[in-house]
Amino acid sequence: MSKPIAEYTPQVAIVTGAAKGIGRAIALRLASDGFKVVVNDRLAQEDALNALAVEIPSLGRDATEATASEEVRTLVVTGDVSVEADVDKLIRETVKVFGGVDAVIANAGIALGGVFLEYSMNDLDQVLAVNVRGVMLCFQRAARQMVKQKRGGRLIAASSMYGQRGVAYNQAYCASKFAVRGLCQSIARELMPYKITCNSYAPGCILTDMTDRPEDKMLDGQHGSFIKALIAGTHEGPDAGPDVVASMVSYLCKPEAYFVTGECMSMSGGLIIG
């Protein structure tokens, strides 16, 4: 009889879009949880990734252990998640350095808004390439490795409250985040026999560079006001920092989350209610 899925203890995690914001917070949290963490982003973000990598080695261990051990705890791999060769390299380098991959957090994403009647198909293609194709590629390549390892795995993708309720001027982004939810449900069903779970997370107004909009000044000037007004019809309402999302991802990576798969975990502070 095979071991219960609850006995699975992940050790190596890949985080895409890790240079800043939610991805950075997730990488730091997983490192604190004891993971060896591979951080990925575009080549243009290499300096930010290297700065993040400097912070990671001492996390999740006491000072004595951190000083005494020369064990590699983090790896920087740049690349575009929508490019097959780059994703293959990401998985290959992870396996080469850490011996395997146990969790992939497909956090990389872009948002290109605009008026529907004038929206560019080039912008649509760019958004779908990163937000949907990128998730598919990362999960497919990682899952192939996880199946070989025969120890289960965790696949976790960034959806959004925009993937639960459509809003004006964000057609491509909404479409991509709705797609992520369906993609994760389909993958979850297919990979159940391999003890690989697949879930998504749907943040609300998280205070990052992506939610800091010039339009905030038209309302009360507060960071996130425009985003909240789009989704809930009012600029008043809850917001939070990236650590809220990192905490949820941390849970989904834990052994006790073995029974959670095909789910979209909402963290909107109630903005999508009603």
What is the total domain count?
A: 2
CATH class of the largest domain: Alpha Beta
Give a count of the beta strands, DSSP E runs of length 2 or more: 7
Q: Which percent band covers the strand fraction?
A: 5-15%
Describe the strand arrangement of the main beta sheet, using strand numbers.
3-2-1-4-5-6-7
Largest sheet: 7 strands, parallel
Query: Strand pairing plus helix content: what structural class?
Result: alpha/beta
CATH superfamily of the largest domain: NAD(P)-binding Rossmann-like Domain
H/E element string?
EHEHHEHEHEHEHHE
The CATH topology of the largest domain comes to Rossmann fold
Keywords:
274 residues; 2 domains; 41% helix; globular
Describe what this molecule looks like in 3D:
It is a single chain. The longest helix is centred in the middle third of the chain and has 29 residues. This protein has two domains: 221 residues, NAD(P)-binding Rossmann-like Domain (Rossmann fold); 33 residues, no CATH class. The chain has 274 residues and is of the alpha/beta class. It starts with 11 loop residues before the first strand and ends in a 7-residue tail after the last strand. Strand 1, helix 1 and strand 2 form a beta-alpha-beta unit.
